[in-house]
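Field reference: "sequence" (input) and "structure" (output). Example, Peptidase C39-like domain-containing protein:
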Amino acid sequence: MKTNFTRWLPSIAKTPTRRTALAAVGIAAVCGGVAGPAIAAESGTTPTITGGTTVTAAEIKTVAASEPAKDGKSAPASKPAPADKSAPAGKHASKGDHASKGDANRHGDSGKNDHRSAPKKPAAPAYPAAKQLNYQYQGQINFFYCGPAATRIALSAQGHSLSQDDVAGKLGTTINGTPSAVDTTRVLNSIDGPNTYHTTDVPHKLVTSKQVDQFRGDVMRAINNGNPVVANIAGTGVDTLGGAHSYDGGHYVTVVGYADDGHTVLIADPADTVADGSYWMSTGDVTTWMGNHGYSS
């Protein structure tokens, strides 16, 4: 049996106007009554009638904006134009809000002033070009007392008068000699005062210019503080007059002065039997002489 809708449908479709109205009604029924008017509005056609109410293009756009988005989420509200990020919140940027050229100059000047006012590192002390200490020379009393004798010579420059036996007992010297510069440093500090002397190693026979410069600086500093340097050497060293001093088994000598801005040093050798047991040697040669050993300064 045909319904009334079936009977009047063909008659409606006979005219273009009726066909348009019929199409609008069908789309509205399928798309929830919004898609049809929206399409008509966007295409610029005459506003359609749904349910007896005329819907204008402006009203359709308003309704569309309030409808849910396709993903089910509400469409975001319209946003104001983004504010200038350089302006502080709550006010507009002005020339005063930005660093001016004068401000930049002031900051630059401030940095320069800070740099100029920064404290400078203290300059290295100015030592005289040459200096010798007063000391009491005493040759070693046996073949293995070079360590005690050299240490005693160094202590005598500070007015300490000890016997070689006393110093040997403090050093732990045996028939095999005195172990190392660590021991001479320890005994010198125990008598002259803590931290007066420090031990420096010269680990290789092939020394560097940096090691020579360090030894030169250490000698000048120690001598000007009134402290001779005790050096643990081995092998042969040649003095400035060409004299050779050979101690293949190891030996201790005392540096009691320097000349030529520290490039030459005065050695008091407790095993030397010539005159007062002293001679001059270049700082570089003495540094090499101490290779594989070290010194107390």
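Confidence is low (pLDDT under 50) at residues 1-114.
The two ends are 126 Å apart (CA to CA).
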